[in-house]
Design goal:
750 residues, mainly beta, Immunoglobulin-like, 24-stranded antiparallel barrel, 2 helices, 46 strands, 3% helix
Length: 750
Amino acid sequence: MESRFAGDAPLSFRTLCWSLVGTILAGSSAHAHSPTDDGKARPSIEILITAETLTPDGRLDEAAWKEAAVASGFTQRNPNPGEPASERTEFQVAMNEDTLFVAVRCYDREPDKIIAREMQRDGALFRDDAVALLLDTFHDHRNTYFFETNPNGTRTDALINDEGRRVSFQWDGIWRVGSRRTEEGWVAEYAIPFSSLRFDPKLDTWGLNIRRLVRRRNEISFWSPIDLEANVFRVSRFGHLTGIAAPKPGLNLQVKPFVTGALVDPTPGATKTDSEVGLDIKWGVTRNLALDLTYNTDFAEVETDNVEVNLTRFSLFFPEKREFFLENSGIFSFGPGAPQLDLFFSRRIGISPSGEPIPIRWGARLTGRVGLWNLGFLEAETEAATEAETGNRTPKTQWAAVRLQRNLGDRSTVGLLVTQKDVDGMSTDGSGDNLALGLDFNLNPTDRLNLTGFWARTDDDSEAPEEDPLDPTPESSGEWAGGVAAAWSGAIWEVEGGFQEIRDAFEPAAGFVLRRGIRRYSTEISYEPRPENPRIRNFDFGIEAELITRLDDSLESLELQAQLFGLSLESAHDLRVFAELQEEDLEEPFEIRPGIVIPAGRYSFHSGLVVLDSDSSRRFSAELATRFGEFFNGDRLGTDLTFRFRPNRFFRSETTWSRNDIDLPAGSFATDLIRQRLGVAFNPDLSLNSFVQYSDASEQLNLNLRLNWIYRPGADLFLVYNQIWNAPSLGDLTSAERQLILKFTYLFAF
C-alpha cells in the first residue's frame, strides 16, 4: 500500500518503518544511563553475587542467605499513611550467572490469622496476605515487572508501563517461587531467570520495591514509600538494587513447539477430528531486545470472553487475552486508549468482527529498549476465512505495527505509532488496505501533574458506501483524530479533564474507535477525605462529566454522574451512592431489541446507582449494584449481584447474576445473564476451571472447561472442552456445537 500522507509522494510502509528502526539502532548509544533522581532519599540494598544455585522452597537454608544484606523498614500506604508497617518485613537479594533470587520474611505476631485462600496461577492475591516484587530493570523510572505471591506459593505477574497507565496482568513470565509458613509468619523465596527479563546489561543498579499486604487489617506497606499522592505503581518512587553484575552471555533462546488435537462437533452427529503443529520462538537478540516468532499460531487454551448484554448502540470492547500479543504490549499503547480510541488493538488480528477465530499463519514481534528509545515492531499474516454464521469472507491479510517512543527527562515520553493492514483482495464488507500514523506525548512536569496528547491520521482504501444525495458526507470531514488531557493528583483531591476530536473518515483498521464524527469533552473531580475514625478509611465524593457533540457542535450525548456519598471501612466493606443524568440526541431510530425500537429524537433521563461490596478476603463475600430510574422514553431497573465463596485454598466459586427490566412505549422486555465460575487448584501448577454463561438475550448456554498442568516452568498441558447449547430457556436446551481440545507444549531453553 502507498501512503498519501505526503501529498503525491508514495511512501512504502516497510521502508518507512525499517528506516526508522535502523536509524535508532545505528544512532543510539550502547546503553542509557539511569534518569536523574528527583533528589529525594531512596532506600537501597546491595545484591549478593554467588556461585550457588538456590532452591526456591522458602527454607532459606543456603549459605548465600547467611551472607546477603538484609533490608527492612517498610512504611504504610494504608491504613495509616507514613507510619511504620504493623508487622516487620525483611528481604534479601542474590544472583548467580543466570538467575535472580529474592527472599522475603513476613513476620506476623498472629500467624494463625494469616489469610491465604488463593492457589491458582494468576489468582486474585489482593484478597490474601501477599508480597509483590517490583523490578525496574532499565532503571528508567517508568516501567516495571510485577511478581506477586502468597503463603501458598501462588504466582501472579504483570507488566506495568508508564507508571501504571498500562497494566497487563494477562502476561505470564517464566519464574518460580516457594512459600512456607513458620511460627513467626511466612517466607517467600523467588527465583527469576534473567532470560525472562529484558534489561540493560551495562547498568549495575535497578529500581526495586517490595509491597506487602496484611489482609486482615487491609494494610498495604512498601519498602520504598509510596504515599497517597501517587498510584501504587509509581516507579519513580522505587528504591535501588545495587551491585548487579551483567549475567553471563548466552544464546538466550527459547523454543516452544506445540501440538493440538481436537474433536469438533459443529452440528450434532457431524463429529470430525483435527490436529495442528506449531512453534513459538523467543530470542533475546540483546539483553534489552526480544524477538518473538510464532508459526501456525493456536490459542485453544485461552479462556472464552465474557458474554455481555449490550443496551447501547455502540460496539462492545473485549480485552486481549492471547499470549503472543501480551508481552510488552504496553509499548504499542497509544493516546487515550480503549474503549474510546486506540490506534493499535491486537484483537483485530485473527478475530473476525463477529468474534470467530481467523487462522494466524505466522507472526513476528521485536520489542525492547535501545538507549533512550522504546521500540516495538509487530507483523502477522492471517489466512483467508469465511465466517460460518454470516458467510462474510475475509481475504488473506498482512498486519503490521511499528512503535517508537523516546524518553524525556525522568518520567516523560514522546512517540510515534504506524500501523498497516494490507489485504489480498477485497473482503465481503468492502474493507481494503489501511495505513494509520499517530504522534503522542506523555509529560510529567511535576510529581502531581500529568499532560497527555495525541494526533493521528488514517489512509483507507475501503470501498466507500454509495453517497446519499440528500445527506452527503462532507469531504472536509478528514481522516484524522486528536486530543489533549491534563490530570492533577493529590492525597485527597484528583482533578482531570480532556478534549478529543475524531473526524468522520478516521478509520484505523488495526485499531478501535468507539465513535466517529464527534468532539468529546470530559472532566472528573474526586475528593476522598480521611476522618479520624478507627473504623472508617475514607469518604469518597466526586463528579464525572462527558459531553459529546457532533462536528457542527450540536449535542449527541451528555453523561453526568455525581457520587453523592462513598464510604470505605477499614474492614474493607464499601458503599457508593450515585446520581446520574443522561441526554441523548438520536438522529436515527435505535433497535434495542428485535421489534423494539427507540424512535429518533432528543431524550433526557435521570437514574440512581447504589453499589455495595463486602470484604472479598472472607470465605463468603458479595457485591451488589442496582441502577434504577428513567431510560430514554421509559424506565429501567438493573441489578448486578455477585457471590464469592472461598472455603479454602483449593476451591473457589463466583456466581454473577445480571438482570435488566426495561419498560418502553414500544414494548417491555427483561434480560438475564448468569455467569458461574468454579475453580479447583490442586497445587500452584495444576488447576481445573469451569466457566458457564447463560444469556436469554442471545438464547445460548456456553460452557468452557479447562484443565491446565504446568509440568515444568514454561511448558503446559491443556485439556479444554467447549460446549454451546441453543437455549430459549434453561429448560429447553439443544446442542449447537462442542469441542474437545488437547494442547501440549514443551520448552527448550538454550
